[in-house]
Write a structure and sequence with these properties.
Layout: H1 2-48, H2 63-69
């Protein structure tokens, strides 16, 4: 009876390990892919950011547009 119990225990342990190994491999592969994606995103962010960005406080509107927008009121009608 002991031998049957040990054989059954060994079989269950073997099946668990067979299941666990691919799960661990997938976890490592997923982590590796996430890290690679983060590195790519950081590289793209560095490439896309230009060193000559204008200050947000600067106003680059044309002087002709200022006169047309001041004093003009557009009526707002709510659509039901």
């Amino acid at each position: 009876m002991k031998y049957i119990f040990y054989i059954l225990l060994f079989y269950i342990l073997y099946q668990f390990i067979r299941f666990l190994i691919p799960v661990v491999r997938m976890g490592r592969q997923f982590k590796k892919q996430v890290n690679e994606m983060q590195q790519r995103m950081e590289e793209q962010m560095q490439q896309n950011s230009s060193p000559f960005e204008p200050d947000p406080g600067q106003n680059f509107s044309k002087s002709g547009n200022k006169s047309s927008s001041t004093g003009e009121y557009i009526d707002f009608e709510e659509v039901k």
